[in-house]
Design a protein that fits this description.
The chain is built from no helices and 16 strands. The chain is mainly β and 188 residues long. It has a single domain (4-168), classed as TolB, C-terminal domain (Neuraminidase), CATH 2.120.10.30.
Length: 188
């Protein structure tokens, strides 16, 4: 299959392969750490399936009811949220971290553009071709409110700052396929 989960210590050193894709397991993609660092959730299989493996190694566990390609554990470590990567809109679902029946929390998020925080979920929802709404879903009221409308196309990867005062997402003046990460040395 050709892909694998590999861990590298923040101090550097030799990478450790935790898991390699197999014909039985299928794809191994989109890894995310659990909040306590003891588990790694990832997309596995040929369908929209989420699995986990202990970060020290061990058996892969399929999370029953978890559907999607990307996933993230809630800050209280009780829920696993997941979605597919469809920028045109996909449901954001959740299941207990032990697995179970999935429920739709938000019917329409733009792919992986969401972030779960203690009191809710920040997310982008597509408004019309080339724009999106930044919204906040409040757990207490079980409702969303619009906070910002983009004027440019958005791409994958919304992130919320640790203090929850800032939201980061990528947008572009053109529709592009692929991207580059560049390092500028001695930038002043």
């Amino acid at each position: 299959m050709g892909n694998e989960l590999t861990i590298v210590s923040r101090e550097g050193g030799k990478p450790r392969t935790l898991l390699s894709a197999t014909a039985e397991l299928g794809a191994v993609e989109s890894p995310r750490w659990s909040h306590n660092g003891k588990q790694i959730y990832f997309h596995c299989g040929q369908d929209f399936q989420i699995c986990r493996i202990p970060s020290k190694g061990g058996d892969v566990q399929v999370i029953t009811g978890a559907e999607g390609i990307v996933s993230d554990e809630s800050p209280d470590e009780k829920w696993l949220y997941s979605s597919t990567l469809n920028l045109a809109g996909t449901p954001l679902r959740r299941v207990p971290v032990s697995g179970g029946m999935s429920t739709v929390v938000i019917p329409d998020v733009a792919g992986r553009n969401w972030g779960v925080v203690k009191n809710g979920i920040w997310y982008l929802a597509r408004a019309e071709l080339g724009t999106a709404f930044l919204r906040f879903y409040d757990f207490a009221t079980q409702s969303s409110r619009d906070l910002f409308r983009t004027s440019l196309p958005v791409f994958e990867g919304l992130s919320v700052s640790p203090d929850q005062r800032r939201v980061l997402f990528a947008q572009s003046t053109t529709y592009m396929i692929g991207s580059d990460i560049m390092l500028v040395e001695n930038f002043r």
